[in-house]
Input
Amino acid sequence: MTLIWLRVALICYAVGLLYALVALTRTSEILGKVALQASYLGMVFHFVSLVEAVVEAGQLTLASVHNSESLLAFLIMVVFMLVYVIYKTTSPGIVVFPLVFLLTFVAATGQQPLVLTPVAVKGWLAAHILMIFTGYAALFLSFGASLLYLLQERALKSKSSTGMFARLPALQVIDDIGYRSLMLGFPFMTLGLVLGSVVAESTYGRVDFLDPKILLSVLMWVVYLIMVYMRLSAGWRGRRAALLASVAFVAAIVAWAANYFSGMHRFIAS
Amino acid sequence: MKFQLIGVNHRTAPVEVRERLAISESSLAEACRKLAEHADVAEGMIVSTCNRVEFLANMKNGSGDLRAFMRDYFAVDMGQFESHLYEFREDEAIRHVFRVASSLDSMVVGEPQILGQIKEAYATARAVGAVRMQLDQLLTRAFAVAKRVRTETAVGSSSVSVASVAVELAEKIFGNLKGKSVYLVGAGKMSELAARHLLAHGAESIFVANRTYDRAIGLAHKFHGQAIEFSRLYDTCERADIVITSTGSPHFIFKREHGEKFLARRKNRPMFFIDIAVPRDVDPEMNKLDGIFVYDIDDLQQAVSSHVADRRKEAEKAEAIVNVEVEKFQARLQTLDVVPTIVSLHDHLETIRQAEIDRVRGRLGAMSPEQELAVEALTRGIINKIMHTPISTLKTAARDQESTTVVELVRRLFNLEDEEKRKAAAKTGGDSGASR
Output
């Protein structure tokens, strides 16, 4: 059942993906509205799917690839909707929808769980995962905002106010979205990492900093920290901010993928 | 009537060319005087705004060319501008003046500023005596046509001026203008208008810097803003989110290094430069800096081009009005052509009549008042009856192409030319006699 709901959600997100692709060439207000409604619907199905998964297993089974990706996609959508509620703009969707679709697609096509011996994910560990994922989602949105900032900046500089750029929000609004999601994501990411090490300490009695996943996560966190610092002290935005955000984003993807190499995150009892 | 107009505008020449031909407000009067004194020119005036530089003249004869004046005035080879220049003569020149005054030739069709700018140019030329007779008639008529177009068509309504386009762009950069500050560099009318628009859309504080500090104070006072001495411009400019420049400076006031300094002090918060000065005040290099957006007058035009289409229909109506008015004005001008002839004819016959009465008096001796009146009425009646047909023929002929031939004929028949010369000679003779 879980997968069926998720696949229904995937179809809804596909409308969003279509919107993003069309937006690259022309603007369509109707499609934007349809995409938004479809995303609402998709999130409902997505939520049902997530709840069912938890109910079935009696715990958060993030150990399987499709569940964790599904959760991340859902969180990104939550942040996207938050931005929409505050700023009334669907423009970040140009970046958000393709990624959410991809994540949901991977989750919904139901790969075999990588996990050999799932560990009970409860209490502090669940909090660790939720926080890290929220951090990821916010970081991703911040990255998306950086890209939109670059697009809008270029449109303003080249003095052409036609095509897809005509409907982008004001530069400062995009900047605000990027800044706020950065500032929202950072504490979650930090707390999530701290929690992770606490849980690791208590479970395994040590934190293996040489574990590739942990190493990459720390690296990502450092880039994140630099971004926040440069933003606050020198007001970095635009091109330079986008560059940092891309580094953080790549680090995040690699860290995500590092599940495949990480001993600790394969949840093999050592 | 030998009107000639030559010039460049925003469509034929980029700002780089326009700024080289622009004539600053301070030297406009002198330029008008020089134009009117030029060999082939009877009357002349010059319109120099950020979008156009035009020389309008009433020539002494048809063969003259205003390019000769431009070459002398600018002391440059006009060949390099040839591809940008447009030229109108006679009724085409009249039509162009009417169209410009009615804002049909504007960057933003229907924008109201141009009429004021032409009125100012007219006043300047008039003050130095460069506009006297027919040009005066032409301009007065042009103002009336502009008014007619404004009241009878919707061309001027919902006018998208440069100012409102500036607001639109500022909102594209800053989102909400609430709490944003505006810096006026140079206290021109256009920048004042732009500032007013920005304030109406939420901008809060205003700074004004001007080379004449008193003007800065005056303008700052109007907006409850702060006047700043020009020397402190670079130390204070980063306080503003939006900078509107409109000085008459021949060089760039803001260069790339200034922009870098502002950005560092502002922690890279974006800045928007609106450069409505021609020649430009802001180095286009500045636009390459991250976080600084520079729009000059041509860029603003691009931004409004979409709005222009909405008004095409109304503009067509306005063009029709202009066409009718051009015809009317031509007819009137030609009637004016015959007026001196009619006056001379009157004078000529009146002189004869007076001479004949004097001769009769000499022969008959003193007459009674009744007899005086009867002779007066008799002679006047004969002259008026004889004059009636020639004068109405002259007036009718004025409206046709044959006017000059008829006028010539009448002048020759009554020997008016010699008459006028004799009178003029007598007048100067009398003057010199008095001075002796």
Q: What stands out?
A: Residues 331-370+406-424 of chain B form one domain. Strands of chain B lie at 3-9, 41-48, 52-59, 86-89, 181-185, 205-210, 226-229, 242-245, 271-275, 292-296. The interface with chain A takes residues 169, 171-176, 266-270, 287-288, 290-291, 293, 295, 299, 302-303 of chain B (CB under 8 Å).
